[in-house]
Specification:
With about 220 residues, the chain is α/β, with parallel strands linked by helices. The protein has a single domain, classed as 3-Layer(aba) Sandwich (Rossmann fold), CATH 3.40.50.150. It is built from 8 helices and 7 strands; from the N terminus they run H-H-E-H-E-H-E-E-H-E-H-H-H-E-E. The longest helix has 17 residues. InterPro entries: Methyltransf_11, SAM-dependent_MTases_sf. GO terms for molecular function: methyltransferase activity. It is an enzyme of class 2 (transferase).
Length: about 220
């Protein structure tokens, strides 16, 4: 039986020291290709005006931006410390990116502002996923696409142990466990989607996580 979900934080990583350690971890995930970018492209994320929710140090969106036909790239991030690191990384990538401090439940963007919305690894921290899903619907244009990837709580002890031991730097390991315990199962996510404006979204399981994808239909 899968253990009950344990809520983590909805404040993001605020400490500069912690943000720097997380930057090192995220860079390693990028180098391994364990950051959801391939899944995003396979789901139909095609470029245009892209919004990333919870970009952290920015590697997921920046890697995606290199591979698609980009008009503009915006990140909505709750942590000022992470925004500073993401801006530095964007300069190193040579990609023009605009990172805005904000909460996914009430994003500071106009209706129909984006062609695609992505997010990797922040879903388990959202205080109200339904409110964020409704915001994604609001800011996407008709025909816009979204892809949200995150861990899932029911990966089992063997996979959990394997990932835990391979997580570097070691300082990140307790955070990996707390994030895993806060993650959702496929069934839980399907129920949340049913109660949101992304009710047509598709939830898929992979080796260690979930992906939520779909296309916006507005009439």
């Amino acid at each position: 039986m899968t253990a009950a979900r344990v809520i983590e934080t909805n404040e993001g990583i605020q400490s500069e020291l912690t943000a720097e350690i997380f930057d090192e971890f995220a860079k390693g995930m990028r180098d391994k290709g364990w950051n959801g970018v391939a899944e995003m492209i396979a789901s139909g994320i095609y470029g245009g005006d892209i919004l990333e929710i919870g970009p952290g140090p920015g590697y997921v969106g920046l890697e995606l931006a290199k591979r698609v036909k980009l008009n503009s790239f915006t990140g909505c991030e709750i942590s000022p410390a992470m925004i500073q690191i993401a801006e530095k990384n964007a300069r190193e990538y040579g990609i023009e990116a605009c990172y805005v401090e904000g909460n996914g439940m009430n994003m500071p963007f106009s209706d129909n502002a984006f062609d695609c919305v992505i997010s990797n690894g922040s879903l388990h921290e959202w205080e109200s996923p339904v409110l964020v899903f409704n915001e994604i619907y609001r800011v996407l244009r008709p025909g816009g696409r979204y892809c949200i990837t995150d861990m899932r709580r029911d990966i089992g002890f063997f996979k959990q142990s394997m990932i835990y031991l391979s997580t570097k730097p070691k300082e990140i390991r307790p955070g990996f466990l707390s994030s895993l315990h806060a993650a959702y199962t496929k069934g839980e996510m399907q129920e949340l989607l049913r109660n949101s404006r992304l009710c047509d979204g598709m939830v898929k399981e992979d080796f260690m996580g979930l992906s939520i994808t779909g296309e916006i239909k507005k009439y």
